[in-house]
Design brief:
Blueprint: E1 11-13, E2 19-22, E3 31-40, E4 52-55, E5 58-62, H1 67-75, E6 80-83, E7 88-94, E8 100-102, H2 104-112, H3 119-134, E9 143-145, E10 161-166, H4 168-182, E11 189-191, H5 211-221, E12 224-227, E13 236-243, E14 258-276, E15 282-293, E16 301-306, E17 320-332, E18 335-342, E19 352-355
Parallel strand pairs: 10-13, 16-18
Antiparallel strand pairs: 1-2, 1-8, 2-3, 3-5, 3-7, 4-5, 6-7, 9-10, 11-12, 12-13, 14-15, 14-17, 15-16, 17-18, 17-19
């Protein structure tokens, strides 16, 4: 298998100006599986007022819902690659079609080494310095920046701060530090989900996962903050998304493996290992407890694999969970196993992973 030079949240730019985000860590030898995030106005326009981004005189639009998938299917089929394990096409970019890349850690290094050009970048630098100063183990090299700041089309007065934090050990350090700072009124940091304000007035789509359950799970993740140290006194959302260090990465893509769909299941299980829960995909090694619906093979499932950001860091070791999604059988030349997959599918909002409390 090829050595990965790009990892989750690294950005790929194509010659058409499409901006895609590398998804996870398992990829075929000559391509990267991706999410498509932004497109220039020359090839795509959106009526969604939240989607507009500006880079000098050039306009970009962020994709929402399945807009990006539709654009790829209708206009740029070369950004479909065949996934041998799934035996279907997925969004991705062949190495030969990559014009350039942007890495969150490189971008942040450049930002902290130059004079801030606006109030948002000033806030970014202040927050980062405060986090590093409060910790004996964290440094600026442990972080990156993604989203609109990575691509330099953020809005100083409206954009959020999206950080990557690299490695399991640094994530554990950061989460503990943030928890302490949330309890300190002088830190200028608070947990975004300490109230139900983030969901107020929003249309809720998940069918088996209520808004109050969502807030409870999000609050204990500790990676979603509000920062008050910004000119104009506005509170800026600052999120810290976990990314694996290079020595933590295992590429599971194997063209000899096959993944077969076995049907929809609902079940209770115990989390036996949560070491990959912070990342995308989030992997929870489980011990099934009760299969409530679906194929009997579900009681042989050894893990839940989630590509849904809502379910990152969703449960911890020894907790009992309720999970609902597609049961899959993974077969190899040496045997096989069953897993429950939570991913982009027609029943997206029926999928669930939550603590059974």
């Amino acid at each position: 298998m090829a050595t990965l030079n790009l990892r989750d949240r690294d950005a790929i730019i194509t010659k058409e100006g499409l901006i895609l985000r590398v998804l996870g860590y398992s990829h075929p030898p000559e391509a990267y599986i991706c999410d498509v995030e932004y497109a220039p106005a020359e090839i795509f326009r959106s009526t969604n007022p939240k989607s507009l981004r500006s880079l000098g005189q050039r306009i970009f639009y962020k994709f929402y819902e399945n807009e990006g998938l539709r654009l790829i299917e209708e206009c740029y089929p070369k950004y479909h690659i065949f996934h041998h394990m799934l035996r279907q096409n997925v969004v991705g970019v062949n190495h030969s079609d990559i014009l350039s890349v942007k890495k969150p850690n490189d971008a942040l290094k450049e930002l902290v080494e130059t004079s801030p050009k606006d109030e948002l970048i000033t806030a970014l630098n202040r927050l980062l310095r405060m986090l590093v100063r409060q910790s004996s183990n964290l440094s600026t090299e442990d972080f990156g920046v993604f989203g609109s700041v990575l691509h330099d089309f953020h809005h100083p007065k409206f954009s959020d701060l999206d950080f990557a934090v690299y490695g399991s050990k640094r994530l554990a350090e950061l989460r503990a530090e943030l928890q302490d700072m949330y309890g300190d009124v002088h830190s200028l940091l608070s947990n975004e989900f300490e109230t139900e304000e983030p969901i107020r007035g929003k249309h809720w789509r998940f069918r088996n996962y209520g808004p109050k359950e969502y807030v409870w799970h999000q609050e204990r993740k500790m990676i979603y903050a509000l920062y008050e140290g910004v000119e104009g006194r506005r509170k800026v959302k600052a999120e810290f998304e976990p990314v694996k260090e290079c020595d933590e990465i295992i590429n599971e893509y194997d063209s000899e493996r096959r993944i077969s769909q076995k049907g929809w299941v609902k079940m209770l299980a115990y989390v036996k290992d949560d070491s990959d829960a912070p990342f995308i995909p989030s992997i929870y090694r489980i011990e099934p407890s009760d299969v409530l619906h679906g194929a009997r093979e579900a009681d042989e499932a050894v893990r839940v694999v989630s590509f849904m950001e809502e379910f990152r860091l969703q449960a911890f070791k020894d907790e009992k969970i309720y999970v609902e999604g597609n049961l899959e059988e993974v077969t190899t030349s040496k045997g096989g196993f069953h897993q429950i997959a939570l991913t982009c599918c027609p029943r997206y909002y029926e999928q669930t992973l939550k603590a059974a409390i």
